Amino acid sequence: MNSNPPLTNVQARDLDAILHPYTPLHTLPQTGATVIDHGKGVYVYDTQGNEYIEGMSGLWCAGLGFGNEEMVEAATQQMRSLPYYHLFGGMGIEPAIELAEKLKELAPVPISKVFFTSSGSEANDTQVKLAWYYNNARGKPEKKKIISRIKAYHGVTIMSASLTGLPYNHKGFDLPIDRVVHTECPHYYRFGQDGESEADFVTRLATSLRELIEREGPDTIAAMIAEPVMGAGGVIVPPKGYFEAIQPILDEYDIYLIDDEVINGFGRTGNWWGSETLGMTPKTISAAKQLTSAYAPLGAVMLPEDIYQAFVDHSRQIGTFGHGFTYGGHPLGCALGVKAIEIYQKLDILSHVRSLIPVFEARMKKIADHPIVGEARYCGLMGGVELVADKATKQPFDASVGIGPKAATLARQNGAIFRAIGDTLAVCPPMIITAEELNALFDRMEKALDDTEFLAK
Ligand code: PLP
């Protein structure tokens, strides 16, 4: 029997017309969607007037929170002056130029050119096409495979979903396609072996990567893609020294590192880029999400000069560089990217995030002691709370219980939005959150965990 309240009119319309992404479609008819109506600061409100602290910045993206008037003004001005133009065939627009200049300035490694897309998936798809193109252009046509990692999340287009290392993105979709190989996930809590130190775990993963490369053939591998902190795989923070251990192996085999900063970028980890926090030295970078603080869709691929020059040479032979999206570099997205970065700088968002990290850390450490929490992991202002049936043995809850989604629902009933990734509750609040709001968010999480424990008994 369905003990849920009857659906409201707007929920019924939603159910009738929307195919919801990443949603258990078989149970949605019982609960209906939570239809969000408006937002202000770190709060969002549903159509029934309920208030929530948005503990996930939407989808790890609304770093400036909701209702920022400077962003609204920048959007309005851009829509009035030039609502659309493109960059094809040598055309240009000033917001795109300005944003590319800013990204070059902020980049953690030397960047020569920026290629704009509309999303993170398109950015990573582009990364792979560019890697193939680059290796054709430099006379290495066999060097095409991309290494990714189990539990990685790089998007949902055919190639970016193949890079993603999560079963529900592959099963039933006939993915991953070939040319993608997955290496181990750097999650010590889950994949560290009995008696193995973190340092030994890192050495084992580095050895395993080397073996994979040798097995596949180094001359067949173009690049490895990695998020500094893995986000949608469950907020997995690699152990100390992980990137320092794998990077020399990649260099040795002429395999370059693609840095997926789609979640980590623009201050989330306390630096502009997660690669700075985690000790990565990438050759190319993907960005999206907080690039515009999600006020408009935009993605970017940032490239060094030698890759760019290979395209120029190849374009000389072929006649053009044959890649581009209708909305890649859309004036609205670019104007909002410029404005978001300007606001981050004006607010000194890095100092703000760094000032909140001790609060975030203290609350996560407390949550780690909760009886149903196996691990509470974090980096900067992003965290993952993994729920387990048995703390001592790390035994997960039976999958049929769906404890993660249940905890997220209970949190919503307590006025906080988190995202359940399996049985991990992800937390990634807008970077503008105050210490007081952050504490309120964690109070609500603790209450939800108590309620979840009670339910699980
Ligand atoms: N890369 C990472 C690290 C992401 O977290 C995501 C989305 O969550 C993507 C790529 C895909 O971005 P989009 O959903 O904009 O296509």
TrEMBL record:
Molecular function in Gene Ontology: adenosylmethionine-8-amino-7-oxononanoate transaminase activity; pyridoxal phosphate binding
One Pfam family assigned to this protein is: Aminotran_3
Keywords (A to Z) from UniProt: Aminotransferase, Pyridoxal phosphate, Transferase
Q: Which CDD domains match?
A: OAT_like
Biological processes per GO annotation: biotin biosynthetic process; gamma-aminobutyric acid metabolic process
Q: Which family does it belong to?
A: Belongs to the class-III pyridoxal-phosphate-dependent aminotransferase family.
Q: Which PANTHER family match?
A: ADENOSYLMETHIONINE-8-AMINO-7-OXONONANOATE AMINOTRANSFERASE
This chain belongs to the protein called Aminotransferase class III-fold pyridoxal phosphate-dependent enzyme
